[in-house]
Every structure is written in C-alpha cells, then in structure tokens.
C-alpha cells in the first residue's frame, strides 16, 4: 500500500488535532467536518479498504469502534448519540485509501429528524 496523508499524520509529519492515541489506533479531528463533532479513528496498520482486511484484523477494527465510544464518553456526547461510518472504495465515498472510521455527533443526524417521524 502506498503512503497516504494518514500515514503522514501517524508519523507526525503532518499536524493534526489528536484526540486519542495508543499502539494500535489514532483519532483526530476531521479537517472538513460534516457535523459539529466530526473526527476520524484510524488504525496505525495500513489497510487500504474494508475489502483488504484479513481475519486477523477483526480485533483491530473492533478497537476502532471502542476508541470512538471512549472518546464519545470522555467528550460527553455518548448518551445523546453519534454516528459511525466507514466508506469503502470510490462508489462508497472513500477518498483516502487507509481505512478510517468517521464519528459524527453534536446534532440530530437522522433523516427525517426524529421529531418529524413521530408525527406520522
């Protein structure tokens, strides 16, 4: 796999607002947020797409979700809720070929808004 912008962030060659880091994962704020809270959780192991994951990567991908929930709890939005999204390939909206979990929160994210669905 070729080097990506995420590899450069992991190697501290490009600055990022780091929210969490351990031996397996790194979480940082998205530079183009799509919600009031939007950060990425990436594995330090380079895996290009979901299709490139191996059986041995199952625990690592689960760890990415644990990191997302841990940050949500620390930042106080876990109980209100949040969305996690992992895109795969061009038609799935993936733009950086190093798997990454988007975490979005800070406003209602369902469509239509939950309150409008209750009126039906």
Automatic annotation (TrEMBL):
One of its GO terms (molecular function) is catalytic activity. A motif (Histidine triad motif) lies at residues 98-102. Transmembrane segments: none annotated. The active site is at 100 (tele-amp-histidine intermediate). Gene3D superfamilies: HIT-like. Residues 5-114 form the HIT domain. This is Histidine triad nucleotide-binding protein. It comes from Planctobacterium marinum.
